[in-house]
Amino acid sequence: MEDNKVRGRAPVVRQMSSWDEKETGSMSRMDTHESYGPIVQRFDTGVSQMDLIDHEALGRVKSHERIVTPAATLDPRDPLNLSQKRKILAVVSLCFFGAMAAAAELILGAMLPVFVIEYAGLDSRNIEQFTRVPLPAGTNPLSLLSYLPGPPIWKVYLLGSLPVLMIGLANLAMIPLATAIGRRPVILICGVLAVAGCIWSGNSQSLDSHLAARCLQAVGAGTVESLIPFVIADLTFSHERNTWMSLVFGTQGLIIVGLGFATPWVIIKLSWRWLYFITAIGASLFMLCVIAFLPETRWKRTSAEIHGIPRDESNRAYVPRTWKYDLKLFHGDVEWRAGWNVFVSAMHTLYYPQILFITLLNGAMIASSFAAGYTVAEPLLVEPWAWPFSSVTLCLIPILIAAMGTVLVTGKFADMVCNWGAKRRPGGKRTPEDQLLNLILPCVGGMTGLFLFGLAGNNPSKYPWPMFLTGLGLMTFGFLGCNTVGAVYVLEVYPEMAGAALLNIASIRYIIAFLLSFRIAEWIIDYGYFKSFLIYAAPMGLFTLLIPFLWYYGPAWKRRFPGRLSPI
User: What is the model's pTM?
Assistant: First the structure.
């Protein structure tokens, strides 16, 4: 093993044949291997560890000349040892399921004027006629909605922003629960909640009932979305995570935008209620795929393995992975203390500079992106741009382009940047600070988008609608890019505390986003688009300027706040 130039490389396990199983059945028992999952017996096989390694795959890893982290075990039930096809099936199923569950969350953001009209006692299917009312030059389109009878506009817009708060609060409970009982049962339970919330929303008869249903839907859909980085971290090595995460979030953007194109037609021909029913049906179908193809990925690793040092597994054999094992809902013991420790560690590490930086940056980015999504439709529907309502979801095209750009810039390209940095160091070790280079473009893009969106929204007679939508696309690119790179960055800074670090990002950022966006409609009515979106420019600009300081002082801060091994 010492002859390998690659330290901490991931061994590739040869699947045990029926002959192997018969042979191991007669071997003497040595000890037991405790991991998440049933207790697995170790046996004296008389086979060296090198005999179990696929030398062709090892050669491919060796050619990269980098340290691969974390180090996989030789256990076939280790999630890192799943075949590439199985990993793709699992992640694609989760990706599509999460997209369908979250589709109503994002698509309906641009449809909020429909609900203002609906709860004013008017027929929302006639919205196209309503938007043809001539407005005096310079009139804020949101002020037109504020004059309608019914509940105040800020309360109706809670249909978009209140679920964001619920996602943040739910993650504080659900992510520790995923550590205690496993990813798979929490994802499936939350999937049922998301589907139930969709059905309830479609059948709601009042704004209060609708808000409650949206909150239930957000608890389910938001938790599924927040657990995706955990599952990817369980299934992949650190040098692959940018690619996997960007592909997942980019693909979800494509799915959601595709559904969004049909939204106006569904509202006009059927009803807004059918948007919920359609997403409920889609989420239910893909939940069946998750049940079939996503195994439990929770796996206990030592600190040495997390840092790429494999354990000595000579003279050991393991029980093979089976479909019966994969389809089980629960694996191993319920570890409530481990879940509680993740929550406590998250509260303890929130002030760690790297985690605090990424959490606040993500909060500002997601707030600006959501605020733009809530208020993008109104200027497009009225003069001078005067889009027909049936075409309003074409405003999602910039989001589609942003999702594709995210895949390119923060995926394979980002991994190339980090791996290039690793090759320039003795030993080929990759450092977390390499990831900060990949934050620059999303931050600059998000900042530029703010100004374009605010200027065009404030002066639609002076600026064209392509400038308005370019701003929306750039803000979305900033949000998706910072989301992807930020998650990978904290995983690399604190691999031993992945659960606590990701919990901070997955929960606190949504709470911050809610506080910064839930009054956006009233801010725009009072101050206009440009001044309202300058609110987000201050924190985003500050954090962009702090990136060089984080790159320079990051290693010293890691030594000052080293973290500790925490269950994930």
Answer: 0.76
